[in-house]
């Protein structure tokens, strides 16, 4: 149909779903930290987790809308989650699930199909043969 957006490729959908799952998990951890009531430290951790989770959800939404500015934060946050998850997996085995989701999300966001969906294609330019002068603009540069 004319005027409809092209279908989203699977890697883009996987990256969005993974980022959204991580964002929701962070918001849930923030609420749990705030509800624990262990004093101001627990409240501060809860506020930071809430902001981080909201940023992750905003990045996922941006990527879903095919915004170029959604991909960078999704990749960065996923790699940060991956590093933090690997650090803490010794204390809880279920954290490997978060590590796997973060790894899949980062890879899916970086795949060529996601780049193509975000219109990040490099158009081929003029190729100069060895020894051929570079093309000049109208001002002789």
Please describe what this structure looks like:
- The chain has 141 residues and is mostly helical.
- The protein has one domain.
- The longest helix is centred in the N-terminal third of the chain and has 27 residues.
- It starts with 9 loop residues before the first helix and ends in a 24-residue tail after the last helix.
Helical residue percent band = 55-70%
List how many beta strands DSSP finds: 0
Shape: elongated
Major β-sheet profile: none
Number of helices: 5
How much strand? under 5%
The secondary structure category is: mainly alpha
Low-confidence stretches: none
Order of helices and strands: HHHHH
Radius of gyration: 21 Å
Keywords:
141 residues; elongated; single chain; mainly alpha; 67% helix; 0% strand
What layout of secondary structure does this protein have?
Elements: H1 10-36, H2 40-64, H3 68-88, H4 95-110, H5 112-117
State the gist of this model.
The chain has 141 residues and is mainly α.
């Amino acid at each position: 149909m004319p005027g409809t957006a092209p279908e989203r490729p699977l890697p883009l959908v996987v990256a969005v779903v993974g980022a959204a799952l991580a964002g929701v998990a962070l918001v849930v951890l923030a609420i749990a930290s705030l509800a624990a009531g262990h004093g101001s430290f627990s409240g501060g951790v809860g506020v930071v987790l809430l902001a981080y989770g909201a940023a992750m959800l905003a990045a996922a939404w941006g990527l879903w809308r095919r915004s170029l500015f959604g991909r960078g934060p999704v990749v960065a946050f996923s790699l940060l989650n991956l590093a933090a998850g690997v650090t803490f997996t010794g204390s809880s085995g279920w954290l490997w699930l978060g590590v796997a989701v973060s790894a899949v999300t980062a890879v899916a966001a970086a795949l060529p199909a996601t780049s193509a969906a975000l219109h990040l294609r490099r158009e081929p330019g003029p190729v100069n043969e060895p020894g051929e002068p570079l093309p000049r603009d109208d001002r002789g540069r």
